[in-house]
Request: fold
Amino acid sequence: MGSDLHAPLGQGRPAARRRVRRFSPAAVLASLAVAGILGLSIYAMRGDDALRRVASNDPPASEPDQAQPLGRNDQNSAGQQPAGMPRSNPTSGANIERTLTDDGMVVTKYTPRSRDNGGPVLIETQRIGQDPRMAAQPNEALLEDSPYGRLPITGPDGLRPMDQYARPWSGARGTRIAIVVGGLGLSQTGTQRAIKELPPTITFAFAASGNSLQRWMQEARRSGHEILVQVPLEPFDYPANDPGPDTLLTRTSVKENLNRLHEAMGRITNYTGIMNYLGGRYLADADALEPILRDVSQRGLLFLDDGTSAQSKTAVIAKAIELPHAFGDLTLDGQLQVDAILKKLDELERIAGRRGTAVGVASAFDESIDAIRQWSERTSQRGIEIVGVSALAGQSVEP
Reply:
């Protein structure tokens, strides 16, 4: 036996004394399963930031990409295709054919087709709203290139930006109130405070003439807010009361007004609709208003009329072209005092109690933010649900 200790490998040992360890197939499979579970656990521990970077190639949150204002030309950052894994919707691998039958039924036929790009894609399954981890990134299928930036469109499968970027709600048919805070982007401190302090149920409206809109949009979307774009329209006392650059005017051609609308639309992405800023004269002029609302409708957006113009033709035109629309029931901060705004919010609550829904409109003033925050903290105790304005589009009553 002593000589066996120094014998070359495979020589000098009797076969009877060799011990051969055999592994059963079941043991091998069990080992592989354990290794797979450990691998998935390690991947899961990477957290949401890692998942976002895999899906959209976002930089780590620690990078100071928001330290400098992006300015008016920051729209280009939204227009670039993310370098990471491309995103797609569930029906992007299908041909969709709809047929209207004689009895008025719509028959939808799905047949398989190849997606545009090879390789893996990240499938977004939500039809209403977005995964919060992806909410700051647009759905590429809902954008088209234009001289004014990337503009919203209805997707090839019928998905509307209004639905994709909506804030989901419970679906309960209780008392529902939408609060829209406008003027974001005009004041850096007011915008930052609104995003930081107001609950995610509040809808934000970004002024098309504001600054660093893409940055603020991303912060608002990451915080869970539904957003709109505020477009300046001609008031009755224009030009003494000037809403700002690129105001849509009744005496301007339809083509030029559409260009100005698209200029405003191209400033940011991920919004559910358009809201007027001022515009008493423009909203009362059906010939000027109809082409604008038709463009909004065809792009799968909603229109919010702030309710300040008694002569507005929005309701009539929106009904004719099947445009989802809503009206503001109350301007909440006509008096810039917290107590006065709280009284207006109580009045809005009474309107919603009678009708089931109501829409309140305010601006991003300190007093408005304080009052809305205080009031919203108590609403759930009274059986009220604060919803995004898209949840009420088409349901609010004409003023």
